[in-house]
What we know:
Blueprint: H1 4-23, H2 31-38, H3 42-48, H4 52-70, H5 81-103, H6 109-126, H7 128-132, H8 134-157, H9 162-181
Helix pairs in contact: 1-2, 4-5, 4-6, 5-8, 5-9, 6-8, 8-9
Amino acid sequence: MEDLRIIKTKKAIKDAFIAERKTKELNEIRVKTICENAIINKSTFYKHYTDIIDLSNKLQEEAIDAFVDDFEHKDKIFSNPILFIKDFEKVLSKHFAYIYVLFKDDVSNENIFKMLFKVKEKLFAVYEDFASDTEKEILLSFVMSGTFQTLATIKFKQYKNENECYKKIEEIINIISEKYLKI
């Protein structure tokens, strides 16, 4: 277990960084400002992080891990797609504001792929044969990416009938399951 002082220091650094990140681009944030707002010395900052980029990368990784850990029904993608979709949406909603702040000028496909890859790794524990079967792995990636992008679109456009959108996603997953995966 990490020392409580270290936990509090890292939290202060994280909170100061997030506050700055809400209003500034990553390249505009300075270690000096983070330290002043976290009420720490620069040497303390550098004990934990090499620079602002390192801090940002570590917080992004933590955010992705938290997203994956909170995703309770990740194993239901084919057996109960609607439960999978609703859980995915719930976790996405819970973490959306924080993830958005961390990734706002780096909402690249690379970061989306990192997140989806971690979820997929967890799915391989349930669907073991998918990891060794290229076709199944591709289909799993297709379903995951499509679900993620569709839910993000629903979130941004705020459709009036989200349940109808969920049912359409479920229908597509069921078609893929039946036709290609024989599940």
